[in-house]
Amino acid sequence: MNRIALAAAAGLALAGLAGGAVYLLGTGSGDDRFAECRTGRIGGDPAQLGGPFTLVSETGKTVTEADVITGPTLIYFGYTFCPDVCPLDNSRNAAAVDLLDAAGRVVTPVFISIDPARDTPELLAEFTGYMHPRMLGLTGSPDQVQAASRAYRTFYRVQDPEDEYYLIDHSTFTYLAFPGLGVVEVFDRDVTPEEMAARVTCFLDSF
After folding, report:
1. To which H or E segment does residue 64 belong?
2. Does residue 37 have a known ligand-binding role?
3. Distance between CA 199 and CA 115 in Å, rounded?
4. What is the DSSP letter of 191?
5. Between helices 85-102 and 121-131, what is the axis angle to 10°?
6. Does 86 count as an annotated binding residue?
7. Which helix (H) or strand (E) holds 181?
8. Which stretch, 89-103, 155-169, 180-194, has highest mean pLDDT?
9. What is the CATH number of the domain that holds 72?
10. Which residues constitute the domain of residue 132?
């Protein structure tokens, strides 16, 4: 079994469940078309999340947010060397996408690496290929990755840069984004695939 498969099977442990500096979404105002879809557990303005970015895809092509968010998109920030959290969260996202596929709703899962020093396009392609055939992996220069992270108000911090096998503390939210609108919802890691699929369906029906 390869390293990625082993990581995906690992149990919940450490690796950085830092809450993350994000603005979380609330129930919305009366003119919010998605008000009935929101959980109400998170408060803030979804318009404050997301924004322009320039990154490198797993194919080596430079892309922007307009190239990536061409339809309903689930976006997660993590890294392939993550021993447990990232594989589990992305497996959950992939399972939700499969449930949506079965219902005829096409959503693209995206994985943005916060570890540009180690996550090459080739390694990202291996990771995303293991997770879901339609998952897109993105990396870039440290400045490009940092800019994307800031746009989505995510948090990440390398624990020990001198350690060859360093871990990274990072936020673990998944963002639902639509072209032309940007981020419309945030999912925490406690949401099940079934719950995510149902909530995404609500947003799609209201889009």
Report:
1. strand 62-64
2. no
3. 30
4. -
5. 50
6. yes
7. none
8. 89-103
9. 3.40.30.10
10. 3-206
Number of DSSP helices (H) and strands (E) in the chain, helices first? 6, 9
Residue holding tokens 């879809």?
37
Six-digit token string for 41: 């557990």
Please provide the DSSP assignment of 6-61 as one string. Answer: HHHHPPS--S-----S-PPP-S--TT-TTGGG--SSS-S-GGGS----EEEETTS-
Confidence grade of residue 18 (pLDDT, cut at 50, 70, 90) = very low
Paired tokens of 56: 């490198």
- Does 202 count as an annotated binding residue? no
DSSP category for residue 135: -
Could you give the CA distance from residue 135 to residue 68 in angstroms, rounded to a whole number?
Answer: 11
User: How many domains does one find in the chain?
Assistant: 1
Residue 21 has what pLDDT?
A: 36
The Cα diameter of the chain in Å comes to 51
Three-state secondary structure of 139-179: ECCHHHHHHHHHHCCCCEEECCCCCCCCCEEECCCEEEEEC
Q: pLDDT tens across 86-129, in order?
A: 999 999 999 999 999 999 999 999 999 999 999 999 999 999 99
Q: Which of 23-27, 128-132, 164-168, 174-178 has the lowest mean pLDDT?
A: 23-27
**Segment 52-68 mean pLDDT:** 97
Q: How confident is the model at residue 12 (pLDDT cuts 50, 70, 90)?
A: very low
